[in-house]
Amino acid sequence: MTWSKRILIFLVTNIAVIAVASVMLSVFNVAPYLDGTGLNYQSLLVFASIFGFSGSIISLLISKWMAKRAFGIQLITEPQSDQERFVRDTIEHLARNASIGMPEIGIYNSPEANAFATGWNRNNALVAVSTGLLQNMTRDEVEGVLGHEISHIANGDMVTLALIQGVVNTFVIFFARIAAYGVQLFLSRDEEGDGIGMLAYHITAIVFEILFGILASTIVMAFSRHREFRADRGSAQLLGREKMVAALERLQSLKETLVDPRGKAFSAMKISDKPSSVMALFSSHPPLKDRISALKESV
Fold this sequence. Notes:
Elements: H1 3-27, E1 34-35, E2 38-39, H2 41-61, H3 63-71, E3 74-75, H4 82-97, E4 104-108, E5 115-118, E6 126-130, H5 131-136, H6 139-155, H7 157-187, H8 197-239, H9 241-253, H10 288-297
Parallel strand pairs: 4-6
Antiparallel strand pairs: 1-2, 3-4, 5-6
Helix pairs in contact: 1-2, 2-7, 4-6, 6-8, 6-9, 7-8, 8-9, 9-10
C-alpha cells in the first residue's frame, strides 16, 4: 500500500472519530469539563468515554476494509486452484463446527508465514492467509492455523479487544487531563502564578496521554497474549492437538522469515510475531515456545 493510501486511511479514521465523538457530545449535551471553576469530573469522564470508545469501535467496524487495502487481499469467491479450494473447504468446515457464519476468505502476497482474522461480526468476519504460509506449511499445519483464526472469531476476540482498548483509552484520556490540570494548579499556586494557559494545558494533556498510553498498552497486550493461548486450545479442540502443535512448531522454525512491513499495524490480529525479551510486556503474542509447551501440557 502506498504512503498516500496510508495517509488517507489515517485521515478518514480520525475524521470519523472526531465527527462521531462531536455528535455524541452534542446529543448528550456534555458540558465543558474545564472552566473557570476547575475540572468537572463527571463531564470529563463522559468526554473521555466518548472519545475513548469512538476510536476503538470505529477501528473495529472498518477493520475488514482497512485490512483488505493494507495487505492487498484477494478474496476467494470462486477457487481458482486446488490450494484455494482446500483453504475454502477447510474454513467452511471449521466455521460450521464452531457455529459461526462463513467468513470472507482472502490471500495476500507476503513472504511472511502468517494469517489473521478480523471483523466486528462473528458471522461476517474475514480470514486472510499469506502466500508465504501456504508455500511453507503442510496442509495439516495450514489447518491448524485456520483453526486458530476461526477460534478467534468464535471467541469474539476482536470485539473484546476493542472494548478493552476503549476502556483503556477512556482512563488514559481521563487521567491525562487530571494530571495536566494538576500541573496547571501547581504553576498557579500563588498570586503571581498565571498557570500554563489553555494551549499549553492541552499540549501537556497530550504528553500525559502518550506516557499513560504506553503504560496502559501493557494491559491490552496482556489480554492479547491470553487470547492467543485460548485460540490455540480452540484449534486443538476443532482439529486435534497434533495439528496445532505442528503449526506452531513450523512457525517457530520459520520465525526468521522476512517480516512484511505492512503487517506491523496488524500484529495483534496475526497468528505469530517476534516478541523480544525486552519488549515482552508490549508484545501481542506470547513466545511460540511457550504456546507449544502450554498446548502440549493441556489435557
